[in-house]
Amino acid sequence: MAHFDYGYFQSNKKKIVSKKNKILSSRRTVINRIIACRFDQEYYDGDRINGYGGFKYDGRWKIFLKKIIKKYNLNKKSKVLDLGAKKGFFIHDLKELIPGIKVFGIEDHEYAIKHSIPSVKDKIKLVNSYCDIRYKKKYFDFVHAHNSIYRYSFRDLINIIQIISYISKKSHITIPAYTTDNEKLKFYNWNLHGGIVLKKEEWKKMFKFINYKGDYYFSGSKSFGL
Predict the structure, then answer these.
(1) Alpha-carbon distance 90 to 103, whole Å?
(2) What are phi and psi for residue 9, nearest 5 degrees?
(3) What is the pLDDT of residues 142-190, one digit of tens each?
(4) 64 within domain boundaries
């Protein structure tokens, strides 16, 4: 188990993004959170205050996937699962970088799948909950979960991490963490889904207790420029 930063949040360190996120933190209300939790058009492609404000493909994963491919020794014989695949950008770019690789996605809401990239739409499976994932032990060479599991209840989150451990040979999860109470407050004010945000040391204690041996990255208020 190791902290591995493949650089996804580097683009979020730009001053213009930081300023916009700080403004959103001050404007978002409980109504925006209700709308966001529908995970429909308003969340993905509606007003930014309710979600992404237009979740469009820009090829950014190709930059970070080079590090991931090298770190986890991925090749055309590998099987990879993206947990929280959304519109399939990660698995689309991975397929282009490694032709022939077996890629799969999991989502727990329909809108993103219906509006996913056509080339990978049939690779994304809909489930009611990530707790419902069923694959054989060590079925995947690599499981990737980028900021997709923390919005579950604490009990379900633990279950999902254990499932990831069971079905993967190697894995990487991104979860929100904080060091100070101010960092925690900033993240909750900006975040639309609530969910589990722990201190970094608490995450590490959890990983050890439930025997999660995969890699991880701590996102949070600094990652999003708050």
Answers:
(1) 10
(2) -85, 0
(3) 999 999 999 999 999 999 999 999 999 999 999 999 999 999 999 999 9
(4) yes
Q: What is the pTM of this model?
A: 0.93
Would you state the structure tokens that stand for residue 20, as one six-digit string? 């916009």
Q: Residue 101: inside a domain, yes or no?
A: no
Range of the domain at 165: 8-77+129-219
Q: What pLDDT, in 10s, does the model give residues 81-118?
A: 999 999 999 999 999 999 999 999 999 999 999 999 99
Going by the DSSP 8-state scheme, the letter that residue 127 receives in this structure is -
Number of domains in the chain: 1
Task: For the chain, give the longest Cα–Cα distance.
Answer: 47
Contact 27, 35 (CB under 8 A): no
Tokens representing residue 7 in the block: 């650089």
Q: Which residue has the tokens 């219906």?
A: 114
